[in-house]
Amino acid sequence: MWGWVPPLLQTHSLIFQLFFFLFSFTKGKTNPGAAKHATTSQILVPTDTPGITYLRPMETFGENDAPKGHMEILFENVRVPFDNVLLGEGRGFEISQGRLGPGRIHHCMRLIGQAERALAAACDQVLKREVFGKKLSRNDIVMQDIAKIRANIECCRLLVLKAADRMDALGNKDGKTRQMLSLVKAYVPHAIQEVVDTCMQMCGGRGFSQDSPLFHAWMGARTLRMADGPDEVHYRTAGRMELQQQRNNRMRGLGEYVVDESVVFRKSGDAISEGTLKILKEYSKL
């Protein structure tokens, strides 16, 4: 049953949808003259406040992510009490950064589940389907793909586990934890997208249709590579942190040897020995 969702998750989803039906979060610049990190605020806006117009549901790959989705919203002279400012004025970026770590890692956890689901569907297909007179499960290339998928899933799982463990133990502000979170955000969605893509290929036309969850899993992984920041930004962050950490790495310089440039093999002006000239003469006859 492709569409089955545990009752607890259904309940959480309904609560989540009800909340966003009643309220919307608005992030905007409230103090342009402040320090860069304190220019924006996040404001809770009840959806029945006058001046709000829902222009259209935005689509990704033709889907609008019903029933909640993402709307293009027009705010015209919308007024709410100052108490609706979350945490206080100028803390918009702080709120965003506070949730991006656990928020994105939560998405990556769900992606790993989607990858397991896709692999199960692919394995079921290759065990049943015959091509050119033999089961796909007897094809060496297919077996290699399945093994690589398992390896990729486990790499993602361990990376997420390490990031989550550091976040629990040291919090989001720890430098190494932030680097791990950046790596998770960039690496896992891309790896899972490739995993699901390979599973879709194994499943043939069914993997691209509404009869399986594979296309939606692929779409979710591809979309997540842009949500909460593009891959390039997260890799840039992780790379900059790595260079900073490497400055104090005691392994720097290990394995480097000082070359004695006074010892040379030969110089262009050195005479060629009689033995070498004889060898060259014999080779020239070949």
Structure description:
- This protein has helices at about 5-20, 90-130, 140-170, 175-205, 215-225, 230-245, 275-285, and strands at about 25-30, 40-45, 50-55, 70-75, 130, 135.
- Helix 2 packs antiparallel against helix 3 and helix 2 runs antiparallel to helix 5.
- Residues about 1-20 have low confidence and may be disordered.
- It is mostly helical and about 290 residues long.
- It has 2 domains: about 20-85, Butyryl-CoA Dehydrogenase, subunit A, domain 2 (Beta Barrel); about 95-245, Butyryl-CoA Dehydrogenase, subunit A, domain 3.
- It starts with 6 loop residues before the first helix and ends with a helix.
- Helices cover about 50% and strands about 10% of the residues.
- The protein is built from 7 helices and 6 strands; from the N terminus they run αββββαββααααα.
- The strands form 3 sheets. The protein has a two-stranded antiparallel sheet with strand order 1-2. A two-stranded antiparallel sheet has the order 3-4.
- The chain is flat and about 100 Å long.
Q: What distinguishing features does this structure have?
A:
2 domains; Butyryl-CoA Dehydrogenase, subunit A, domain 3; 7 helices; Butyryl-CoA Dehydrogenase, subunit A, domain 2; flat; two-stranded antiparallel sheet; mainly alpha; disordered N terminus; 286 residues
Total number of β-strand segments? 6
CATH superfamily of the largest domain: Butyryl-CoA Dehydrogenase, subunit A, domain 3
Q: How many whole angstroms does the radius of gyration measure?
A: 29 Å
CATH top level label of the largest domain: Mainly Alpha
Summarize the helix and strand pattern as letters: HEEEEHEEHHHHH
Q: What is the architecture of the largest domain at the second tier of CATH?
A: Up-down Bundle
The biggest beta sheet is recorded as:
2 strands, antiparallel
